[in-house]
Each structure stands twice: as structure tokens, then as C-alpha cells.
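This part of the workshop introduces the protein records we will be handling. The question running through the whole workshop is how a given chain folds. To make this concrete, we reproduce a full record directly below:
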Amino acid sequence: MKIAENKLFALDFDGVVCDSAIETGLTGWQVATQLWQDMPENMPEQIMIDFRYIRPVMETGFEAILICRLLFEGIKPDLLMTDFTQRIDAILSRDQLDTTDLKKRFGEYRDNWIENDFSGWIKMNPLYPGIGKLLQQIPLSQLFIITTKQERFVQAILQANQIDIIPTHIYGLDRKLKKPQILSNLQQSHPQTTILFIEDRLPTLLDVIRTPSLSTIQLCFATWGYNTTKDLQAALKNPRINTLDTPSLPN
């Protein structure tokens, strides 16, 4: 398949390229045990099941710490799904937690896991079927990753799966930029290029749609990622959004 030179492909990572929910949940649980001494070392199987269910509303990795705590305290998954932001804000306030510290703890736990058990960490971060082959079809100069994950973790997972990417083409948590802003920057630096953005979170795509300067960005909703049936129904009704059921590059 020949890819047009005037196209740029920007992909989200977790939920589009990598099925990281198990690793994210385990990391969140272990960091939570550092903060709350009443939690057992091993994550109960039911809490992992509930975490995967809630994963579609989670935006940034450190929130896994708080989700695990709330599930341990007995909050019903459906209630957390429908009232996520308020519940997260409430536990941050109640326990006087600092998001910068939580992000640091989350990243440090992952760094230690990678250092001590890299192969085990990689196994908990599998690529979605077909996505590796898809990424290898895209020329290096045209491939970008836009994610809320820290960039070094993205690079480690891609390298372990023999996928090359230019390091500066990974826009992660380290940049402290929202995805619409990153797309705007790419648009300005590639003025003659069509940008195609593949994302599994409907709210992120809607943020792009609400940004007038991004009206020419092609939007694709990855249905295999962390989203709900309700998200899919809304995406299908939106004329700006193309839905993808399997990893592929629309014409």
C-alpha cells in the first residue's frame, strides 16, 4: 500500500496502539498500596475486571491510582463511570493528594518495573492485533504519536515490538499540552499536509471538533479501544468522525 506523501498520521497510544489496561491497573494498584496501608499487596481479580470496565473514562495514567482506591472502598463501577470527574476530585480533596506527586509516583513505579522485569512489563502492554503491521507501513517522517502517556514508556513499547519512530514525533505527558493544541502545532508546522488523527476516546475527538482551527483534521474513532457502546453510537451520528473497527488507514 502506497501512502501519499502529503499525509500525516497522528495516533493516540493507549487504546489505539497498545492495550495497556492490565499494566495500568496493576501499576495504579501498587502505587495505591504505598498511599493507603489498608490495601493488600495483590490486586483482587474483581477489581481488575472493574478497572477495565471503567478504563474508557480514564484520561491520564495516574488516575488509575485513585480508581483502584475507590473500587477498594466499594464504590460501584457504574457510579464511577457516570460521575468520574467529581469522584476523582473528591478523593483528591479528601485525602489531600497532589496530582504532580501522583504522576511522579506512577512514573517511578513503572520505571522500576521496567528496570527489574522488562519482559514482564512488555507482556502486560500488548499491541492490538494488526497495529504493528499498520505502523510499519507508515513512513517515519509521517508517523506521530499523541498521548497522555509519558514518552519514554511509549518508546520502550514500540522498540520492543520492532517499530521505529522518530523520538521527537512522540507527544506525551511530558509536553504538558492538550491534544487539540498538539494537532494545531502539527498543522502549523505542516501547512500543506492532511492530518489524520486516530483516537479511541470520543470526548477527545469532540474537543477537536469544537476547535474551529482544526476543521480540516480527519478524525477516526478506534472502536477497538477504551470506549463504550454509547460512545460508538454518538460517533456514528457525527459527520466529522469516521469509525474504524480494525486497525487500518482510511483513504
